[in-house]
Specification:
The protein has about 260 residues and is of the alpha/beta class. The chain contains 11 helices and 10 strands. It folds into 2 domains: about 180 residues, 3-Layer(aba) Sandwich (Rossmann fold), CATH 3.40.50; about 60 residues, no CATH class. The strands form 2 sheets. It has a 6-stranded mixed beta sheet, with helices on both faces. Helix 3 packs parallel to helix 6.
Length: about 260
């Protein structure tokens, strides 16, 4: 793998000193779409919170863009170029589309912000037509596009997307993943994608990590994952996964 934008090494995190995720390792390089999946309660959200700096590490190390950011807060990681789109509360409903983008560009000068908004509307013409509409009046798909566009206003090197297709109709979910997320990867941004629509997300993933009970159960390339005959066994079976050659320990998968 090329030099990683994000490298998570044996990371453990949780709440009030109780470890929810344990010894998780993964890498995300530029243009990479790294998918993390697992059953409910597997620790996916806890892992994301540790990566963005919302939760402190209880062990391990997180490097971003060649720097150890393990002790950095959310704001400092964001300034470094780590973008994040949460599953919920991803836009400001009482603000218009344009105002939401302006909030996303709050670190920019007025001129830079106007230019970034113009470029964003060029990339997402659906939003330009809605520029004066309040976010509360958008459809689910339009709202998610706005959330991603707002995160892109800061021109992040990497974007973490926490279940971007949640509550979206299948057709819209396809569009978000196959057009928007793939397009961001082609522009050179690293993507860490958390998804429940496993088959749909796996189709675009360059690598896949399966979390079960807070630990890495499976880590392989997207191609290897797509060849697994029974994906559900990775989630719920206590036996070794069917494709043994694709299963590696967290440390090996991170190399």
């Amino acid at each position: 793998m090329p030099d990683a934008l994000l490298q998570v090494s044996s990371a453990s995190a949780g709440y009030r000193g109780v470890r929810v995720v344990r010894d998780v390792s993964l890498k995300v390089a530029a243009s990479d779409i790294a998918l993390v999946v697992g059953p409910n309660g597997a620790g996916k959200s806890t892992l994301v919170k540790a990566v963005i700096g919302e939760l402190p590490l209880l062990g391990g190390r997180i490097e971003f863009d060649g720097t150890d950011v393990s002790s950095w807060d959310e704001e400092r990681r964001a300034v470094r170029g780590l973008g994040y789109v949460p599953q919920a509360r991803d836009v400001f409903p009482t603000l218009t589309v344009t105002e939401n983008l302006e909030v996303g560009g709050y670190r920019l000068s007025a001129r830079e912000c106007r230019r970034a908004i113009s470029e964003t509307f060029g990339r997402f013409p659906q939003l330009e037509r809605l520029r004066h509409r309040k976010a509360s009046g958008l459809s689910g798909g339009e709202r998610k596009l706005l959330a991603i566009a707002r995160a892109l206003m800061a021109d992040p090197k990497m974007l973490i997307l926490d279940e971007p297709t949640a509550n979206l109709a299948p057709k819209i979910a396809h569009m978000v993943l196959e057009e928007v997320v793939v397009g961001l990867g082609k522009l050179g941004r690293g993507i860490l994608l958390i998804e429940q629509r496993v088959a749909l997300a796996a189709a675009i993933a360059s690598q896949v990590t399966v979390l079960v009970d807070g630990a890495v159960r499976y880590s392989a390339s997207g191609e290897e994952f797509r060849a697994v005959p029974d994906v559900s066994a990775l989630f719920f079976s206590s036996e070794e996964p069917a494709v043994r050659g694709a299963v590696r320990g967290a440390g090996e998968a991170a190399r």
